[in-house]
UniProtKB/TrEMBL annotation:
Gene3D superfamilies with a match to the protein in the record: q2cbj1_9rhob like domain
Protein source organism: Apiospora hydei
SUPFAM superfamilies linked to this entry: Clavaminate synthase-like (SSF51197)
Leader peptide range in chain numbering: none
Domain of life: Eukaryota
Protein's name in the database: Dioxygenase
Length: 418
C-alpha cells in the first residue's frame, strides 16, 4: 500500500522490509522534474489566471508562475508579493494532468493534516448569473427539476413544527452531552465554533425514526437506484464567528473524477429558519454539470445561500460545489441533519460495520435500517464469509474472523475437500 511501510514479520524468510524497486530520492526528483515539464507545457493557458503564483514542491526551492501578462512565464525568483502561495506534492500535478485526481480536491486534501499545504492568497472567482434560483416548494416534481438544472432543490414542509422541535432537541442535547464529556468534534476556524455530530444511527431513537421519512423514498431511488446506502448520517451546528468551509463536492471520494454521473445525494433537514446571515449552506448553482469548478475554493464569493424555513429539506446532487456558510449572527446557532446516500458500490465514509457493534442499538434496527446501512447483499457485494447471493440480510456470523487451523487435505472433520 503506497505510503505505508511494511509491518512486523511473523514468518522467517518472508521479511520484505528491505526490498524496494524504487529509490525514494530519485523518484521524488523525477516527479518534481515531470511536474515542471507539465507546467511549462501549460504556460500558454496559464496567463488566464492573471495573477502571480508562488509554487513550492515540498522542501524544494520556491518558483513563480507569472500569469499577469499576455504570456505566462516561470520565474526562479521574484520580488513581488504573490497573489497565491501553493505548497503541493509534484505527484498531484502529474495526476491532474493525467486526469487521475480532481484538481480542486488535490489542492486542499493534504491541508487537513498539514496546515503548510493549505493554499494562501486569493485568485478571483467567476460569478455565475441566473435568471432564477430554486425556491422552497411542496411540489416534489419541481424540486426534481431544480436538482437537474441547478444541482439542488428545496422541499418545503418536510417536517412539521412538532417534528422540527423533536429533532432539534435531539441534536442540541446530544451536542451538549458531547461537549460536557470532552468529545465534541468542532470546526469552523481556529476557535472551533461549529460542532459536528457523527454516527447519528447510534445517538438515539429519534434518529432511527427519521430514517423512515418518505422523502428518502421519493428522491434517493430516483437519483441513485434501488440499492443506495447511507455513507454518513450526521448533524452540523453552525455558530456565530465561524469561518466558511472551503467549497467542495460530496463526490470527492470518486477519484479519478467522473462528472457525468451523480454517485450520491445529500438530504439536509433544516431545524431552524436558515438565512444567509445565520450560516446557510452556500451552493455554486449549476456546478454539477460538466467540468465545472469555482476558481477559488477558499471563498464563498459567487455562491448562493440556500435559504429556507425550518422543516425544509435541502436536497443536493453530490457533484455540486458547496460549503457551510458564515454565521454572522450575534447569538444563536443553526443546527441541521445531513443524511448522505451513495450508490451501493461506493465505499461508505462511516464504517457502520464497526460503529454499530453496540448491543443496545443493533436489536432496534429494522430491515429498512439494515438495508440502508449496507447490511444487505446487492450485485455480488456485501456478503459474509463468501455468501453473496442477491437480497440477503447479513449480520455478525459465528466463526468469521477467528483464527482457524490449517487444513491438511485429509478427509474428516475440519478437512479441506476440493
Amino acid at each position: 500500500m503506497a505510503g505505508v511501510p511494511p509491518g512486523k514479520t511473523y514468518t522467517p524468510g518472508l521479511d520484505f522490509s528491505g526490498v524496494t524497486y524504487t529509490c525514494p530520492a530519485k523518484k521524488a526528483q523525477s516527479e518534481a522534474d515531470r511536474a515542471h515539464e507539465i507546467i511549462k507545457e501549460k504556460l500558454p493557458l496559464l496567463h488566464q489566471i492573471n495573477a502571480l503564483l508562488a509554487v513550492t514542491f515540498g522542501d524544494r526551492p520556491t518558483f513563480f508562475v507569472d500569469g499577469r501578462g499576455d504570456e505566462a512565464k516561470i520565474l526562479e525568483s521574484c520580488d513581488d508579493e504573490p497573489d497565491c502561495r501553493l505548497n503541493i506534492k509534484p505527484e498531484y500535478i502529474i495526476q491532474f494532468y493525467e486526469n487521475k485526481l480532481e484538481p480542486r480536491y488535490g489542492l486542499f486534501k493534504d491541508a487537513f493534516f498539514n496546515e503548510a499545504s493549505m493554499p494562501a492568497g486569493k485568485i478571483p472567482v467567476a460569478i455565475n448569473a441566473f435568471s432564477r434560483l430554486p425556491e422552497p416548494t411542496e411540489d416534489v416534481e419541481q424540486v426534481k427539476r431544480d436538482i437537474e438544472e441547478f444541482g439542488y432543490g428545496l422541499a418545503k414542509n418536510v417536517l412539521s413544527p412538532e417534528q422540527v422541535a423533536i429533532m432539534r432537541k435531539a441534536v442540541v442535547e446530544q451536542a451538549a452531552g458531547e461537549r460536557k464529556a470532552g468529545i465534541a468534534q468542532v470546526d469552523g476556524g481556529p476557535d472551533g465554533p461549529n460542532q459536528r455530530l457523527w454516527t447519528l444511527i447510534n445517538k438515539g431513537d429519534d434518529f432511527l425514526d427519521l430514517l423512515n421519512h418518505p422523502i428518502i423514498d421519493e428522491f434517493i431511488p430516483w437519483a441513485l437506484g434501488e440499492h443506495a446506502i447511507i455513507t454518513t448520517y450526521t448533524a452540523n451546528i453552525a455558530r456565530p464567528g465561524n469561518v466558511p468551509m472551503q467549497l467542495h463536492t460530496d463526490q470527492v471520494a470518486v477519484q479519478p473524477p467522473i462528472r457525468d454521473i451523480a454517485f450520491g445525494m445529500n438530504i439536509l433537514f433544516y431545524l431552524e429558519d436558515v438565512t444567509e446571515k445565520n450560516g446557510a449552506t452556500r451552493v455554486y448553482p449549476g456546478s454539477h454539470l460538466g467540468q465545472v469548478a469555482p476558481e477559488d475554493i477558499f471563498t464563498v464569493e459567487g455562491s448562493a445561500p440556500a435559504e429556507a424555513p425550518a422543516g425544509t429539506a435541502l436536497i443536493v446532487d453530490s457533484r455540486i460545489w458547496h460549503a457551510t456558510g458564515p454565521n454572522r449572527e450575534e447569538a444563536g446557532e443553526r443546527p441541521l441533519i445531513l443524511l448522505f446516500f451513495m450508490r451501493s458500490f461506493i465505499r461508505q465514509q462511516e464504517n457502520n460495520f464497526l460503529s454499530l457493534r453496540r448491543s443496545d442499538v443493533w436489536p432496534k434496527l429494522s430491515d429498512r435500517h439494515k438495508r440502508m446501512l449496507g447490511f444487505y447483499t446487492t450485485g455480488a457485494l456485501g456478503g459474509v464469509d463468501g455468501e453473496v447471493r442477491e437480497g440477503l440480510f447479513v449480520e455478525w456470523k459465528d466463526g468469521v474472523g477467528r483464527c482457524g487451523r490449517r487444513m491438511t487435505g485429509v478427509r474428516g472433520e475440519g478437512a479441506s475437500v476440493g
